[in-house]
Amino acid sequence: QVQLTESGGGVVQAGGSLRLSCAASGRPFSINTMTWFRQAPGKEREFVALINWSSGLTRYADSVKGRFTIAKVDAKNMIDLQMDSLKPEDTAVYSCNAALRVDGVLTPYWGQGTQVTVSS
Fold first, then answer.
1. Closest CA to 5 of 93, 92, 111
2. Which residues, 6+ apart, have CB-to-CB distance to 42 below 8 Å?
């Protein structure tokens, strides 16, 4: 069994900052990529940021470039998403996704989601 555990999130005023974390744990695995998505009420889930585990390369949605930073903590199989200059439109449930190789099979895993609310 492999699981993703998210932490962070909460309520913040516009212009403020929050940090989300997502840690993978369980049976032996290797990480391919870890990604943050978000889903606002009444909207479809959208991509936020991705990090390639081996290369460290990152990719961001245009809407968060320059404000959000994704980083990995190798020793903990964990990623952080530092969110600065938050806007009300960043309000959403943020979910962590990991592409993990378990027993040689690349499989996607999802965290439970964490609420981020930005007040104006």
1. 111
2. none
